[in-house]
From TrEMBL:
CDD domains: Peptidase_S66 (cd07025)
Pfam families membership: Peptidase_S66, Peptidase_S66C
Protein name (database record): LD-carboxypeptidase
Protein family according to the UniProt entry: Belongs to the peptidase S66 family.
PANTHER family per record: MURAMOYLTETRAPEPTIDE CARBOXYPEPTIDASE, MUREIN TETRAPEPTIDE CARBOXYPEPTIDASE
GO biological process per UniProt: proteolysis
């Protein structure tokens, strides 16, 4: 059954910024508010912003209530998650998506927000994996910000990346699924788990040990997440860590060890993840992937 794309934003629409994971203050979000207003949007700062409970944007009850309020409010046309970090899995099972299903809206974020992206996809709704408000001020990330704006306002995007020595040629089509590798592994077997068969998986991560990246790939493969893929897109694996005795492989080489067991195309070097160039992808959107000697092309359908 096709996934549901929320309606595109229009000038004058109201959007909310929330903190389902780590805290973000109003001063830290000021640049994002100004940017969103320059797009013609009205901005609501949720009750989980500008508060703190240890690392979190308020305790679990505060974050849960805030996200639920924005999901339920039909006047809110998009929910932007302020930042990632950790915390979304602590509240996800308490959220009720019944009213959201009556008035679907865009939910956007990445990293820890992979939890929400996957949870929504499992219920048949598309969402956005893209740059978050805490990072809107990055001058080097203006292409990322523009890609988010274009997706929110209903444009289908086409991305091209240069040739990469680890690429595997081929063509594929299917719905996009994926996000942060460590979160995807954590979601396995939960109510937020997602099917990957026939879909194009994209992966990214930050600060992970090389052996841990291997361990997570082993887990995804053992649980059948790789066997039925239509294609694989490899994003940024930022600042990988190693032990005193080196693991001996790069993140891309680790991923290719497991991808090589199957026949789908693989595109490395895609600009998605924990770096300023973090182009917006729509989780659940049908796309086509072409990988050849010229590079890779990902086209929204």
């Amino acid at each position: 059954m096709p996934t549901i794309a929320p309606p595109p934003l229009r000038s004058g629409d109201q959007v909310a910024i929330v903190c389902p994971a780590r805290q973000a203050s109003h001063p830290e979000l000021a640049a994002a508010v100004a940017t969103l207003e320059s797009w013609g949007l009205r901005v609501t700062l949720g009750a989980s912003t500008n508060v703190a409970h240890h690392q979190f944007g308020g305790d679990d009850a505060v974050r849960l209530q805030d996200v639920q309020q924005q999901l339920d409010n039909p006047e809110i046309r998009a929910i932007l998650c302020a930042r990632g970090g950790y915390g979304t899995t602590r509240i996800i099972d308490g959220l009720d998506f019944a009213r959201f299903a009556e008035h679907p809206k865009w939910v956007a974020g990445f990293s820890d927000i992979t939890t929400l992206n996957c949870h929504l996809l499992g219920r048949g709704f598309q969402s956005i994996h893209g740059v978050m408000p805490l990072l809107f001020h990055q001058e080097a990330g203006q292409e990322s910000l523009e890609s988010l704006r274009r997706v929110l306002f209903g444009e289908l995007l086409t991305y091209s990346t240069p040739a990469h020595p680890l690429n595997r040629f081929g063509t594929a089509s299917g719905e996009l699924v994926g996000g942060n590798l460590s979160i995807l592994q954590t979601l396995t077997g939960t109510a937020s788990d997602v099917a990957t068969t026939g879909r194009i998986l994209f992966l990214e991560d930050i600060d992970e040990y090389l052996y841990a990246i291997d361990r997570m790939l082993v887990h995804l493969d053992r649980t059948g997440k790789l066997a039925g893929l239509a294609g694989l897109v490899v994003g940024h694996f930022t600042n990988p860590q190693d032990n005193a005795v080196p693991f001996g492989l790069t993140p891309g080489e680790i991923i290719n060890q497991y991808a090589a067991r199957y026949n789908f195309p693989v595109a490395h070097g895609f600009p998605v993840g924990h770096e300023p160039q973090n182009l917006a992808l729509v989780v659940g959107q049908p796309v086509s992937l072409t990988v050849d000697a010229a590079g890779a092309r990902l086209v929204g359908l």
